[in-house]
């Protein structure tokens, strides 16, 4: 790990405050370490294409399997009752499109123009109190990042309000795509719960090899859908809880290693109450100057 650069050695306002150790090699580190050109590396790489192709193929195969067996969907289709089958297919397609959208979009990469501005935007040009000496705000070795951002080693970019790098979508989840990620999980959960109900409607159990031979694919589909349902449900519940607290997965898991959290007198300096936290996450249309909230909260009278 490279040396820690404190804010007092940096030019410009405190908008360059960051929160993690340098990612540059050992030795003298310049204030601006060269980095790869801006691009969604994970989204454009071969690994991302394989993951997305596998997700699409699995979604299509499971949905098709529910139509090929004697489930409620097949029975409704045979009777000419096409409303529910069409609605189910539409939800599956919607979930796949949301998956591609959230996996390919910019999660909030700190771009070169943001670094050049050095926090001179309207939100970050406000006066920020002097940083306490025991709080070592740290620079990433690649860019001048805002508070709550983190450098992703897989994407090779710093991500605003970094939550985690998700191998499922082969992209980071950050300030710009976190809300859509939650929407995707919600739609996916509805599809999976409906799929569990449909698969169960086609199962009848007999202790014979004949039954197993004719229902093995539907049984495997049912078990896979149940597993995916549990995973998505746990993910959605955990994200909604963290959102209600205005914290991220990275901050929750690494609280003891993040300087601005470890040295804060508050358990979570960004928590503004459940209602305001949810409103800011789901309804705010602009990027947030987290430094402003942080210093406002730690200076509030007890």
Q: What features would you highlight for this structure?
A:
50% helix; single chain; elongated; 11 helices; mainly alpha; 302 residues
Write the layout of secondary structure elements.
Layout (H helix, E strand, L loop, with lengths): L40 H4 L1 H23 L3 H7 L4 H22 L7 H6 L32 E3 L4 E3 L4 E3 L4 E3 L4 H24 L7 H37 L3 H5 L5 H4 L11 H10 L6 H9 L4
Antiparallel strand pairs: 1-2, 3-4
Helix pairs in contact: 2-4, 4-6, 6-7
Condensed summary:
With 302 residues, this protein is mainly alpha-helical. 50% of the residues lie in helices and 4% in strands.
Work out the helix count. Answer: 11
Order of helices and strands: HHHHHEEEEHHHHHH
Strand content: under 5%
For the biggest β-sheet, the strand order reads 1-2
Structural class: mainly alpha
Q: Could you walk me through the main structural features you see in this protein, from its secondary elements to its overall organization?
A:
The protein is mostly helical and about 300 residues long. The chain contains eleven helices and four strands, in the order H-H-H-H-H-E-E-E-E-H-H-H-H-H-H. The protein has a two-stranded antiparallel sheet with strand order 1-2. Strands 3-4 form a two-stranded antiparallel ribbon.
